[in-house]
Amino acid sequence: MATGLSSKRILLLMDTLRTTEPEAMELVLREEGYREDRQLKRTLETLGHEVFAFGLGDSIEDLLRVVRRVRPDIVFNQCEAFAGDRSLEPQVAGLFDLLGLPYTGASPRCLELCADKGLTKKILSYHRVRVPAFAVSTARRPMRRSGGLRFPVIVKPLEFEASEGIAQSSFASNWEEARARVEYLHGKFGCDVILEEYVEGRELYVSLLAEARPQVFALRELVFGAWPEGKPRIATYQAKWNDDYRKKWGIRSDYARSLDPKVEQRILQVGKKIASLFELRGPARVDLRLTEEGEIVFLEANPNPCLYRGEDFASAAERSGLDYPALLDRILQQAWRRRRPLPAILRVA
Q1: CATH assignment of 131-197, among 3.60.130.10, 3.40.50.150, 3.40.640.10, 3.30.1490.20
Q2: Which pTM value belongs to this model?
Q3: Which of 181, 190, 244, 249 is the most buried (most CB within 10 A)?
Q4: pLDDT tens-digit series, residues 145-185
């Protein structure tokens, strides 16, 4: 298949429990649980690239050794953790900056910023983007009073992704319920917690390829088809990842329908504004709520969203005329354009 980018050597980087060499990753990718990763690798190969999959465990030395051996032109960065610690995701991207290797997706600064759901809301509030009222309870100094919060609220980990730590019990109608959930999250995960005003409305996802002139794709929505009337609609971990739960309640990801064209344009413009403020680059997703009154409320920004075929981001791109191979090619082209002719601090010999 022809591609806009000439053949490159690509290091497909994933995080695994233990360091997994490219030869061993070929066996791992045959397992059913890695079907999507296998499909991603094959698509990159179909585009004419030589792809080496590597599982990063807890050894930077092993990564450097593989980089020296493979000598990649581009790192396709699918790594979300180091040694099982998601908070170290920005440092992995930072290593490639030091090496002078172009890589797909977000920069360390963007990853660090977007991980803090409280800080992102402070910045957007300053720039007159509506955000839910919120308060942060740290593990070191837990909240003892509501601090004037309006209820109901959603109580969730401050820096976790993929709805981890979010359940129906995250919805709190009063301070007593909120405090119980805060104490539970502090105790179970040892994490900081954000208490966030619950915003009733449609949950919409703006997917975009973010650069100087970002390209926004078709809006996606989390639909609660058979959800009980009056029960809060929350993107819990179950609602996102448990197929039986989703089937029971008619929860599905779909294209946003029946939107007034002017409202849709406002939503896309808000998504692009947020992408610019947070210096998102490459594939990114902005999660919003649209109230019955037509207000657009920011929830969170997701640099490096899931890129698997059939998931929200790839589906949004396809609806907008960019099929899966073309999408991956565009992502690679963006990374390649960002390469810098600067001396590497750590030489890749």
Answers
A1: 3.30.1490.20
A2: 0.92
A3: 181
A4: 998 899 999 999 999 988 999 999 999 999 999 999 999 99
